[in-house]
Amino acid sequence: MPMTAPQTTAADQPLVLVAHLFKSYRRGSQILPVLQDISLTIREGEFVALMGPSGSGKTTLLNLIAGLDRPDSGELWVGGVDLTTLGEAELAAWRARHVGFIFQFYQLIPVLTAFENVELPLLLTPLSRRERREHVELVLELVGLSDRSHHYPGQLSGGQQQRVAIARALVTDPTLIAADEPTGDLDRASANEVLDLLCRLNGEFGKTIILVTHDPEAASRARRLIKLIKGALITDEANRKGSCPVPAAQTTPPA
After folding, report:
1. Domain presence at residue 20
2. Which one in 43, 59, 87, 125 has a CA-CA gap of 20 to 30 Å to 78?
3. Alpha-carbon distance 33 to 23, whole Å?
4. Among 212, 106, 92, CA closest to 168
């Protein structure tokens, strides 16, 4: 079943290990550096906010950790897997099993109901139809949308659509949740509902969350703040005033 209880990870075995990571993109004849010599670790059960101005490289870093892109050089390990060694098919299979994605604009399919949108990732698994239904019903209940399961995205508010997207991200019980500006298109009340839900996922279920955000209110929920400027890691510090509770598996805040 999805949403298993948090597991304790040894302090010397981080869930994410990034070492001397470089990433650039080509624009015509120009090479544009995006990330320069990034090194960091993230433990299981952490709630991390990646912050920085537009063009700082925070979304690129999230995409690398989530297996959506590849670095030019450096080490990138997630859950004991060296992502730089995986072929495209292997990387796609790894993403499907280990990463739950939440995007700013929901990325829901308008002709599918909330239930069907959440079920989509499970269609690639060997689960039976009954098992898929149980998984979907469980996560829709978790995000408070059991009574909206047969509604289409156009019949839902922005906040409800984002909660459907969160349910879809959770339905495979992923190793980590990669959230790219998940409150950027929401009003303050809806944004707070989504942030409260992320807090619950981290605090009660020990889900590892990496959140890219421009929003100080969203970042204030995280237990750790990492700031990038012009592709360089400027600060990496514990947010001891973070408003989310510390997960049970994480007995002390990260240093």
Report:
1. no
2. 125
3. 6
4. 106
Structure tokens, 139: 């996560």
Query: Over the stretch 50-71, which tens digit does the pLDDT of each residue have?
Result: 999 998 999 999 999 999 999 9
Q: What is the CATH number of the domain that holds 64?
A: 3.40.50.300
| Cβ atoms 48, 209 nearer than 8 A | yes
Asked if residue 10 is part of any domain, the answer here is: no
Model confidence at 9: pLDDT above 50: no
Q: In total, how many domains does the chain have?
A: 1
User: What are the CA-CA distances from residue 225 to residues 13, 48, 155, 248 (Å)?
Assistant: 20, 6, 36, 20
* Alpha-carbon gap, residue 242 to 222, rounded angstroms: 6
Q: Is residue 217 part of a domain?
A: yes
User: 132: Cβ–Cβ under 8 A, 6 or more apart, which residues?
Assistant: 119, 122, 123, 125
Tell me the pLDDT tens digit for each residue of 92-128: 999 999 999 999 888 999 999 999 999 999 998 889 9
pLDDT band at 248 (very low <50, low <70, confident <90, very high): low
- pTM, two decimals, is 0.88
Domain presence at residue 252:
no
* Domain of residue 227, residue span: 44-68+87-238
